[in-house]
Amino acid sequence: xPTTKWAIDPTHSEIGFKVxxxxxxxxxxxxxxxxxxxxxxDDNFENAAIEFSADINxxxxxxADRDTHLKSADFFDVxxxxxxxxxxxxxxxxxxxxxELAGDLEIHGVKKFVKFPVDFSGLMTDPWGNTKAGLTIxxxxxxxxxxxxxxxxxxxxxxxxxxxxxLNIELQLIKQ
Length: 176
Fold this sequence. Notes:
Layout: E1 4-8, E2 14-21, E3 25-31, E4 34-40, E5 49-55, E6 59-60, H1 64-71, E7 83-95, E8 98-107, E9 110-125, E10 131-142, E11 161-175
Antiparallel strand pairs: 1-4, 1-11, 2-3, 2-11, 3-6, 4-5, 5-7, 7-8, 8-9, 9-10, 10-11
């Protein structure tokens, strides 16, 4: 069966995350610049080859001071690690539209194996004749596993920034 290549439609996709601030509210952000190479040999994405990178300088939490701090050596250290990378080792159908994406996530020069649940919305043809596919990837990572250790203790107990980072990735792909 021939291999099909897909590209991310950046107008209809978002690489987002949420982190608890002061242990009770979420701060959301996203990466505005990213790239991916996605290929597969059938119509259900099983065994898809997926490689992804995001430009850390494109981080956007809607607060310039916070974004500058996240880019600093306290967190991502963009001077030394300007991108994060993900390379899938498997994309497996669990049931129905539910899949599991597994592979190596590299952040801050540290590579760790991760697994994320994926909701595959299926294939659709848009009004201009383009074949599209929809994927929702969610999950949680501990930022300290990648050396993102900065924090500040609160006088009332607890910490300023949660270790847990929730990932919310919405992808609309275009068949090439």
